[in-house]
């Protein structure tokens, strides 16, 4: 962030990002986003941005604000905590923006229409009630998973901007982003570089983003395993046998 600031870059708000295209005399600008809304942002990222005069948009999983990341596969020894509403409101007052990352971080393209509507609408309703109408204008699709059906539901839910992975199609509800990962060493992330190195960076970022499908698969397997291991009481067994006999 410091390298970008020294190079003359400035961050954009969501409104500015969706506004008129920059002119040749406009300073170099970019939209900075964070997904999931982990509590560590308030400790390690937001103070740096505030010192530089930068802003950012954090996409929150609304059902997990102030809670641990039990929606995710357990990659760390301890579960990671998300920002609380008090944290969010404090940093919103200091100029940072917040938007939707769904209600429960489920892969929308794998859900039926009713579940998709619930994810999109409930998350937006919570955000606008807690943070104001501007918090309901954008969504980052969980895992970057998006198709035409999801775009249609997103538009019907009232969102104006939708962000996916590395690839987009020009639709304001199917916008691309360049992920920054731990291997992005140096002042410029590989995905933002020019030439072959930049193309390779985008390709690797896209592959890494697609690999996130493993989280969804693992969560489904874990859910099924819990179902298989569910203790059955005598009452449950009697009820089950009664239903079988009734058929």
For the structure shown, list the relevant keywords.
247 residues; mainly alpha; 9 helices; globular
Structural description of this entry:
Strand 6 (138-140), helix 6 and strand 7 (161-163) form a beta-alpha-beta unit. The protein has a three-stranded parallel β-sheet with strand order 3-4-5. A two-stranded parallel sheet has the order 1-2. It is globular and about 45 Å long. Helices cover 43% and strands 9% of the residues. The chain contains nine helices and seven strands. With 247 residues, it is mainly alpha-helical.
Distance between termini? 65 Å
For the report, how would you describe the main beta sheet? 3 strands, parallel
Helix content: 40-55%
Shape: globular
- Which strand-content bin applies to the residues? 5-15%
Number of helices: 9
Write the element-wise H/E pattern from the N-terminal end onward: HEHEEHEHEHEHEHHH
What does the radius of gyration come to? 21 Å
Structural class: mainly alpha
Task: Set down the secondary structure blueprint.
Blueprint (H helix, E strand, L loop, with lengths): L1 H5 L3 E2 L2 H4 L11 E2 L2 E4 L3 H13 L4 E4 L24 H9 L3 E4 L12 H19 L6 E3 L7 H10 L3 E3 L31 H16 L2 H16 L5 H13 L1
Parallel strand pairs: 1-2, 3-4, 4-5, 6-7
């Amino acid at each position: 962030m410091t390298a970008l600031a020294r190079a003359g870059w400035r961050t954009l708000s969501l409104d500015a990002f969706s506004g008129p295209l920059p002119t040749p005399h406009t300073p170099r600008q970019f939209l900075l986003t964070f997904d999931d809304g982990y509590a560590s942002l308030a400790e390690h990222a937001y103070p740096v941005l505030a010192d530089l005069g930068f802003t950012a948009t954090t996409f929150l999983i609304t059902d997990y604000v102030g809670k641990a990341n039990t929606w995710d596969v357990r990659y760390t020894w301890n579960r990671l905590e998300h920002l609380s509403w008090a944290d969010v409101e404090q940093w919103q007052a200091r100029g940072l923006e917040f938007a939707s990352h769904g209600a429960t971080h489920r892969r929308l393209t794998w859900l039926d229409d009713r579940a998709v509507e619930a994810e999109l609408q409930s998350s937006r309703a919570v955000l606008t009630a807690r943070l104001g109408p501007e918090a309901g204008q954008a969504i980052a699709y969980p895992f970057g998973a998006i198709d035409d059906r999801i775009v249609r539901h997103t538009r019907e839910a009232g969102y104006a901007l939708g962000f996916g992975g590395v690839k987009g199609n020009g639709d304001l509800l199917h916008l691309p982003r360049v992920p920054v990962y731990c291997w992005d060493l140096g002042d410029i992330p590989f995905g933002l570089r020019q030439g072959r190195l930049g193309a390779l960076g985008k390709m690797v970022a896209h592959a890494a983003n697609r690999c996130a499908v493993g989280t969804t698969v693992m969560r489904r397997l874990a859910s099924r395993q819990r179902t298989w291991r569910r203790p059955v009481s005598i009452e449950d067994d009697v009820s089950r046998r009664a239903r079988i006999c009734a058929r």
